Protein: Lipoprotein
Amino acid sequence: MNRIMNRILKIALMTVMVGCLAGCSTKINNESVNTPNASADNEVSTNEGVQDELLPYGTVVLLKDSTKRIMIYGHNQKIAGDTADKVWDYAACYYPEGRLNNESTFMFDSEQIDRVDFEGLKQLSDATLQADKGDKWLPVGSVVEVEGVTEPIIIIGRYQKNGDTGEIFDYIGCSYEKGNVSAESTLIFNHDMITGLYFTGYEDEEEIAFEEKLNSVSK
Structure:
């Protein structure tokens, strides 16, 4: 991975250089799924008290009347500024692309799920920390230990550009325990900053094909 080596984590609003990667011609059922606007006033916020029965972060699902799978990375969330103050069971991003920007975050409820293709890590105690993270891209939904960070991080996107500096980082992640609470709660980091691997996210043919695209643009 011939990208910038940077040992300092930067927690900031991110823009993404993956427009050519997403290729999302398939649809999300937007009649029943709420997509936050990209403006700063519509960042995702969360209520305390995550329900135990909700599917874990990193779970890949297909919604009813949709053809594009998504990955769960938030629970019991609402959109800041929403006058209806609606609380959604889940927040999710595209699978396998991950979080691209605010517009690629989707809110939905449990009854809208048609099927579950992969279940994420239920609790950290179920996993064993491995030192060997490998040398290839880790799928979204992977749970890792990052240098200088005291809590486990779940990967929610890849090949991320820092909007302030223009630097490219391998991954964007958020707290595995809390999920993606807001844009400010995310962090960007490189593969070499991962010091341990708790759990590997879903890797199917679609993910493998996407990794090939990542390799082609990151050389």
